[in-house]
# Entry
Amino acid sequence: MTIEDTPAEKLLASELAMLLGNITHRLKRYQTDGFRVCFAEFAARCCDDDSRLARRVLLRTGWVPAGDGEWIVGKGAHPLTKVTDWETLDSICETILDTYRPIEDGASRAA
# Structure
């Protein structure tokens, strides 16, 4: 899938960015040192393998490319999994994605 510049796609990117921002700001003790994430894994797990959507979400929340496929916010000292686990994040992102990009045939995203 690719992102289009429709109002729904802009809202999708905004909602995912708000979620990511809330996750990275909820534990103050880790904010200064910042976080890092593998771009490909983030795109696959949180953005339905849509790299353009993943880039928009990360950029909106202050992340920057750091080389070797990683993106960082702040100093990039901690993995994103320091403040959330992938299973929880997957589940929430899937719910958000299904709201804006419903699957017509009722099949699950994992299929």
